[in-house]
Each structure stands twice: as structure tokens, then as C-alpha cells.
Amino acid sequence: MVTYFPSTEADFFATMPLSLYKYRVWTNPNHRRLLTDLEIFFPDPKKFNDPYDCGLPLRHDQDDSDPIKIKNKLEQLAPYKFQHIKNDPFALQEEVTKQLLYIMQDPEGYFHDNYGFKRNDLSSIYGVLSLTPHPANFLMWSHYADRHKGFVIGFDTEKLVKQNFGKFAKVHYSDEIPVISVLEMNHELMHKLVYTKACFWKYEDEYRFTTVLSRNAKAIVDPVAFKTVHLGFDMPQTEKFAILDIIKEKYPQVRVFEMTLGKEKFELIPMQIF
To answer: Which residue, 81, 94, 166, 172, is most buried by CB atoms nearer than 10 A?
Structure first.
């Protein structure tokens, strides 16, 4: 299911870019299948070039070592966390005491029992699809599209998100590793751990889908979401013609652009060829 954080779906999409792009390498068979077979992949984050991705080190909240603060937080959460005894104040207090002792003795064990995984295990259970609103990012063409020999697929954001590939949100960039409490609410916790990256990746301006227990999984894309294809300025002509033949046969609604080098500025300029 897609998570919409704003109050309505319309508000959610108003905060999103109209198009999102995926950088691809034509010589990679898995990448080609996005066009030939409508297959899209959710890679294992351990294979990413960011060693922190979905594997943030444990930075404990200092409040987790203060029994009074933990007890106060537990008392606030208890009626929601223990629904079966929410109308029994004595049972709730007994449960709070038991949970407090558990947290003080074994905070990592408490975390695992409540969330079903250890905090440093996330990269083993998540599949991630990374996208960007920028089809002419010079560095991304260099890093993710075979040094300008690859291609970029453009999607209609709303049509893609509504295909429900998993949770979808914008990545948050920070100079500091987020502080995590063992009493973090589940959706807040997961967002911090999976959607936080260092500021030196900010140029990617990433939006991502994440799926649990689906790393290296694939999904079929409804081609209604396809919007554009951008061909690298250094892509071999035979590969450009191969992509054009696929577009003309299968996706005539898709516009095709060829990237060219700027003559006055250091930039990539898309020129429509179909």
C-alpha cells in the first residue's frame, strides 16, 4: 500500500514532481527489460554505492537510558499499544512496569520483539526503487547510465505511484545520523531508517519506493505510466535505433529525447527526436 502523508491524495500529489525518472544501462539485460518486458526491479540496498543506505548505525536516544522518561512515554503509549487491556488501569500499569524492566535490561531485544527485526538488518529485508525528478543530471548520467551511454525512463508520477509498488516518499537528507528511540512509533521509525541519507547525496533529489521482504524482487509496470525516454549523448547509434523501434511499436505515446552537450554552459540539453 502507498502511504499518503498529507491529509488527502490531492494534497499528496500536489507536493510531488509531475515526472520521475530512472537512469538505466542498455547493455544490462535487467535494465532493458523495463522497456522490453515492463519489468521493474527493487534491488537489495546492500548493492548500492551508499554503505549507509538502509543500514544506519545505532544512534540511541539519550532518553532511553532515563527510566523516568521511558516510564512516562510507556504510559502515554500503553492504551494504544495494549488494546486488549486499555480499560483496565491496573493491568496497564503492570504492563508498563514489565516493559520498562525489559527496555532497561535489553533495549535491542525489546526493539527486535516490537518491530520484528534488528535495526542493522534493514538492508537485508528491503527492496528499494530509486527515482529522481531530474532527467538531465550530469553526475547521475555518469554514475548510473553507463557514462552517458545509457538511457533514462520518465514516468508520470501519479500514475506510477497509484500502481502500489510499496511505500513511496521523498528521501530526507541530513548531516547527522538520526536519533532513534526504542519507543519510536512504527511509521516514524521506518521513515527515519529507510528514507534518511547523507547530504552529499542531495544532488540526486531522490524519491523512492520500498518493499518489505522483496529485495531483488520485480514488478510489472502498467505502460500507461511511461512518459518519456532520454537517450545518452554518447549512446551507440545501434542502441538508439533499437530503443526507438521498441517505442514506436509498443509505446507510441512516449516522447523520446536525445541528450546533447551545451555549447555555452556545462550542461545536458534534451532534444526531442520522436
So the answer is: 166
pLDDT tens sequence across 91-140: 888 888 888 888 788 777 776 676 655 555 666 778 899 999 999 999 99
Contact 232, 135 (CB under 8 A): no
Instruction: Give the single-character DSSP code of 181.
Output: -
Grid coordinates representing 2 are 502507498
Three-class SS of residue 220? strand
Give strand pairing partners of 259: 270
Q: What's phi and psi for 143, nearest 5 deg?
A: -85, -40
Residues 115, 188: contact at Cβ < 8 Å?
no
- β-bridge partners, 198: 174
Element containing residue 238 per DSSP (H, E):
helix 237-250
Domain map (residue ranges) of the chain:
9-54+126-272, 62-121
Instruction: Read off the pLDDT band of 213 (50, 70, 90).
Output: low
**Residue 259, C-alpha cell as written in the block:** 541528450
| 214-217: long-range pairs with CB below 8 Å, 24+ | 214/42, 214/126, 214/127, 214/166, 215/42, 215/43, 215/44, 215/45, 215/124, 215/125, 215/126, 215/127, 215/128, 216/41, 216/42, 216/43, 216/44, 216/127, 217/41, 217/42, 217/127
Q: Give the DSSP H or E segment for 141.
A: helix 138-144
* Helix/strand/coil for 41: strand
Q: In this predicted model, what pLDDT tens digit does every residue of 120-133 receive, in sequence order?
A: 566 677 889 999 99
